[in-house]
Amino acid sequence: MRNIIILVFVLFLSNCGGQDGSSADIPKMSDNPQLQNAYEKCVVETQDGLEKDNPDTEADVMEMMKKMAFDTCNSLVVVTCTKNINSNGCQLMLDQFGG
Fold first, then answer.
1. Could you tell me the pTM of the whole model?
2. DSSP per-residue string spanning the chain
3. What is the mean pLDDT of the chain?
4. What pLDDT does 12 receive?
5. For labeling, which of 9, 41, 79, 95 is most exposed (least CB within 10 Å)?
């Protein structure tokens, strides 16, 4: 049940998209180095957290969840901060992910 809740949450945040590959294949999402660094840290921390919190999840489900971290972090960090880098939401993301 816990895995289903996490999957639904990740799907909601990611708009059901995803990039191929693992954290070693993090794409460039911003020309702003601060935002790119925060995005990369978000992806790595999200993927690591998914693995740690869900050790019994089937490999194919885990891979799907990890791929969704790319779009989730893009929305949380890059899109939010591109709209307004001085917004409270952006500052929260940069504080969280050290951008």
1. 0.75
2. -HHHHHHHHHHHHHTT---SS-GGGPPP--SSHHHHHHHHHHHHHHHHHHHHH-TTS-HHHHHHHHHHHHHHHIIIIIIHHHH-TTSHHHHHHHHHHT-
3. 83
4. 45
5. 95
